[in-house]
Amino acid sequence: MAYNVRNINVLDLRPSTGIGVSLPFNNPAVFKTVYNTKDQIKYNLINFLLTDPRERIFNPNFGAGIRNSLFEQITAETTDNLDTLIRTGVEKYFPNVVITTLTFGGIPDQNLLTINFSYNIKNTRESDTITLSING
Fold first, then answer.
1. Ranges in the chain, pLDDT < 70
2. CB-based contacts of 48: which residues, under 8 Å, 6+ apart?
3. d(C-alpha 74, C-alpha 36), whole Å
4. Phi-psi category of 106—alpha, beta or left, where left has phi over 0 and alpha has psi -120 to 50?
5. pLDDT confidence of residue 29
6. Which of 59, 125, 71 is nearest to 98 (CA)?
7. CATH class, range 17-135
8. What residues does 3 pair with on adjacent strands?
9. What SS3 class is residue 48?
10. Longest C-alpha distance within the chain, in Å?
11. Which H or E run includes 129?
12. 3-class SS at 34?
């Protein structure tokens, strides 16, 4: 009989050790410490989605560049371009993340773009979902 053992990240074995910060920065002390890798991967993905290329000083290629498409008509071509940008960026910067679903919606008259993003973490086989609403 085969066992399907779930791997645990080494950083998760030390619950009192912070490994990052959460988003948004609205804690009374500005930063709220994150203590597990699942949550930190989620915040890193949100950071990636909200960042444009050339925005980070020492990593100018980092970022999905979604804001460049906010003033475009939401068509199949626009969503295909966004899909390609997000998938290639996640493959490059987050090799331990596998995208399971990526859908786009929104209200074109209000310049609102909604991104629904579900993913799995390869080693731990944990899954999570991100929903972003970006208003131009």
1. 1-14, 27, 136
2. 62, 63, 64, 89, 90, 93, 94
3. 36
4. left
5. 75
6. 125
7. alpha beta
8. none
9. helix
10. 57
11. strand 127-135
12. strand
Dihedral, 101, 134, 19, 30 alpha carbons, nearest 10: -160
pLDDT, residue 34, reads: 86
Distance between CA atoms of residues 110 and 135, nearest Å: 8
3-class SS string, 67-128 = HHHCCCCCCHHHHHHHHHHHHHHHHHHCCCEEEEEEEEEEEHHHCEEEEEEEEEECCCCCEE
Q: Which amino acid is at 22?
A: S
- Interhelix angle for 76-93 vs 37-50, to 10°? 130
Q: In angstroms, how far is the first alpha carbon of the chain from the final one?
A: 54
Evaluate whether 64 touches 40 at the Cβ level (below 8 Å). no
| CB of 52 closer than 8 Å to CB of 68 | yes
**Cα separation, 67 vs 86, whole angstroms:** 12
